[in-house]
Design a protein that fits this description.
The protein is 39% helix and 0% strand.
Length: 64
């Protein structure tokens, strides 16, 4: 009787390359985060000045 399960693992090769790629990308990101101190925030001086005109409510009519 011959073995009907002759799977040599070829289907898992693509998955291994994908997982390997993810590991490499994560390693590169970790290098930049830990060695260079992450993304240095830019110091920006932001001034917000809001001038709106004064709005008064309309007069309420008397209900007589």
């Amino acid at each position: 009787m011959s073995d009907s399960n002759n799977n040599s693992g070829g289907g898992n090769t693509g998955l291994a390359f994908i997982i390997g790629g993810v590991v490499v990308v994560l390693a590169i990101v970790a290098y930049f985060v830990f060695v260079r101190g992450g993304m240095a925030p830019e110091s920006k001086d932001i001034e917000v000045d809001i001038n709106v005109p004064e709005v008064s409510a309309p007069a309420v009519p008397s209900g007589n």
